[in-house]
Design a protein that fits this description.
By secondary structure, this protein is α/β, with parallel strands linked by helices. It folds into 3 domains: 2-53, no CATH class; 66-313, TIM Barrel (Alpha-Beta Barrel), CATH 3.20.20; 330-382, OB fold (Dihydrolipoamide Acetyltransferase, E2P), CATH 2.40.50. The chain contains 9 helices and 19 strands. The protein has helices spanning 26-33, 38-44, 120-134, 154-162, 181-187, 203-210, 216-228, 247-258, 288-302; strands at residues 2-7, 11-16, 20-25, 49-52, 58-62, 77-80, 85-89, 114-118, 138-142, 167-174, 193-196, 232-235, 238-239, 270-271, 330-338, 344-349, 352-357, 365-372, 378-382. Strands 6-7-9-10-11-12 form a 6-stranded mixed sheet, covered by helices on one side. A 5-stranded mixed beta barrel has the order 15-16-17-19-18. It has a 4-stranded antiparallel sheet with strand order 1-2-3-4. Strand 6 and strand 7 (85-89) form a beta hairpin.
Length: 383
């Protein structure tokens, strides 16, 4: 669906589904326009650039025809960590620039160079294979390296997940900015729980924490709308020592006041953890011991459970999809796409995606050794 089209000095630009930006050299487009429709040109024109409209990064469209599997990568596709919960990651990219972001997402990212979007039919088809393997009582958890609601095919995805007979629960992690009354009414037909990332109720702090002009009042109203709907609400703040300490009590009181946690816990307070490729705000990092001690005090004060376990969400261990790749294996494969950060490329081995550390280009062959295979996410290093 072409929502808008415009021109730059050298390119004809089409905005599709409010997210995918297709840029075609103007002279080339004018030549094709004499014979073909816009839709045909957008689909088949070469050369062209496909960009994520929010982040302006190159966007890889992962379809069944692309030959890129949906298992093996942390940023897109499906992740099986050996439980009845399957992580569903349809898109990368974010409309915020959180100072604590574990993957350095958003428009101001200094490390991310490529975004991905997965065709909904392909995602549903591959999800169902894993769900059938897992058996009844599956939770489909939509999350990702960024904001899932940027995904322009969300309703199609939710409908497909809900029609999967093994699925018991559909949940989503979101910052809530793109939600409104109309979308919540639509999502009520499919979704069981929304985990809302909300780390402060103070406007000044919110703009500092989220790294942009942040619509706090609207997100607060969205939280109330979710709590009043058929969808359960879990508020999921990140605790940044020295920044939002006093907000934890305010967020607890807010969650209880609006009726969050009808079926599951009302809050899931997260400890800030610095990651290698994440952003690192100047805060004192709490130890886990200190973090849990603080949560226990808040539990006693408010009479609610804050130290959460998988069982609180009905998460249980289940057999993993078998891994055909293991640490130490050596392969040679063709590079099919750019990786998430500079110096990474994507290859396909044994129907799995492998991220390879190499400076070679897309289309080249690379020989590599698997150096990590945690949770079915594979990393290789060129040899």
């Amino acid at each position: 669906m072409i929502l808008r089209e415009f021109e730059t000095k050298n390119e004809k630009v089409f905005l599709i589904r409010n997210l995918i930006e297709v840029r075609i050299p103007k002279s080339y487009y004018l030549k094709l326009a004499k014979r073909y429709s816009k839709e045909y040109i957008i689909s088949f024109a070469e050369p062209k650039r496909v960009l994520h409209h929010v982040t302006k990064r190159n966007l890889v469209y992962v379809t069944k025809e692309s030959g890129i599997p949906l298992l093996g990568h942390a940023a897109f596709g499906l992740i099986d960590r050996g439980t009845n919960l399957i992580q569903v990651r349809p898109i990368t990219g974010c409309n915020l620039n959180c100072i604590f972001c574990s993957v350095d997402e958003g428009r101001k990212s200094r490390t991310r160079v490529t975004d991905y979007i997965v065709e909904p039919e392909y995602l549903i088809e591959e999800f169902r294979k894993i769900a059938e393997f897992k058996g009844d009582g599956v939770e489909a958890h939509i999350d990702g390296q960024g904001e899932p609601l940027l995904y322009p095919y969300m309703e199609e995805l939710l409908e497909g997940l809900r029609k999967t007979k093994e699925v018991r629960v559909i949940s989503m992690q979101t910052n809530g900015i793109l939600l409104n009354e109309e979308k919540i009414e639509v999502f009520e037909k499919y979704m069981d729980r929304i985990n809302l990332s909300l780390s402060t109720l103070d406007e000044r702090k919110a703009e500092m924490i989220y790294g942009c002009k942040y619509p706090l009042k609207r997100v607060i109203e969205v939280a109330k709308m979710i709590a009043e709907s058929k969808i359960d609400l879990l508020i999921a703040p990140v605790w940044l020592p020295g920044v939002n300490d006093e907000d934890m009590e305010k967020l607890i009181e807010f969650a209880l006041e609006i009726g969050a946690g009808k079926r599951w816990p009302p809050l899931g307070i997260q400890k800030y953890i610095p990651y290698k490729f994440g952003r690192k705000p100047k805060v004192d990092v709490m130890s886990f011991k200190e973090f849990y001690e603080k949560l226990r005090k808040l539990e006693e004060e408010y009479g609610i459970k804050l130290i959460l376990k998988p069982e609180d969400f009905g998460i249980e261990k289940r057999p993993r999809i078998p891994h055909p790749i293991k640490k130490g294996d050596v392969f040679k494969a063709k590079i099919v796409a750019d990786g998430r950060v500079k110096g990474e490329k994507i290859v396909v081995v044994k129907n799995r995606v492998v991220t390879v550390l190499t400076d070679k280009k897309v289309g080249d062959f690379v020989k590599f050794q698997i150096v990590r295979d945690h949770d079915g996410i594979f990393l290789g290093r060129e040899i």
